[in-house]
Amino acid sequence: MRAIAAGMIGCGLLCAQPGPRERQKVDAAAATRGRAVWAQYCINCHGPLAKGTSSGPDLIRSELVLRDRLGNEIGPALKRLAGHDAGITREQLTDLTHFLKEQMEATAKDRNPVVQPNVLTGDRAAGRVYFEGAGGCTRCHSATGDLAGIGNRYPDAVDLEQRFLFPRRTKRVQATVTPASGAAVTGEVVSIDDFEIALRDAAGAYHEWTRRPDLRVEMRDPLEAHHELLDQYTDQQIHDTVRYLESLK
């Protein structure tokens, strides 16, 4: 029993060991050759950037690829997985690892850019058309009113885009609660969950109810339209609108 326990502990410690500390330094020429190997053997299932398809997983997020150094993990895996050992030579395997490491580093750099991305790539005129038309922005906002000079208030275009997509809350959510018997009460939502709701009415009085099927609750969130638009915007509409807002100075 002691021997078994020791073996289990040893196995646990071994499995818990971190991967190699030294990153595999990408060789650009090898990565270029590896791209050709990737295109020949891997691209159909794992996609052109190794980020996966419906036929194969994302290898950029693969722990096996992350831990691999020059094929020491990928090589055995190719032999182990059905349909993967396609006779790749040792040299091709090494080149393939450089390609995968290059893709991983490029993805990491995109997530933590050294230089902020240029978000002012849209068309200002198209942004104005969307703002005044399909976007429905003028129902609550005005280019000569609350948004006048917004381009100066947010000189950082990335910050402007974030404020456009995720505006800060300046007004609390309102609700009207109508119990089965009694008058309806309207006020600011103090708290709400699946079991209770509490409001503070215009006079400052506090009201609380247990939520039951016969308790009607009507919510009015000032940011509801913004939340709904997040599922409707196209990338082009976002870029066009940000470009238009940036021009309001």
Report on the structure:
- There is one protein chain.
- By secondary structure, the protein is of the alpha+beta class.
- It has 3 domains: 90 residues, Cytochrome c-like domain (Cytochrome Bc1 Complex, Chain D, domain 2, Orthogonal Bundle), CATH 1.10.760; 68 residues; 48 residues.
- Helix content is 43%, strand content 12%.
- It has 11 helices and 5 strands; from the N terminus they run αααααααααβββββαα.
- Strands 4-3-2-1-5 form a 5-stranded antiparallel β-sheet, with no helix packed on it.
- α7 packs across α11 and α9 crosses α11.
Walk me through the topology.
Blueprint: H1 2-15, H2 28-41, H3 43-46, H4 63-67, H5 74-80, H6 90-111, H7 124-132, H8 150-153, H9 157-165, E1 174-178, E2 185-192, E3 196-201, E4 206-210, E5 216-220, H10 224-229, H11 235-246
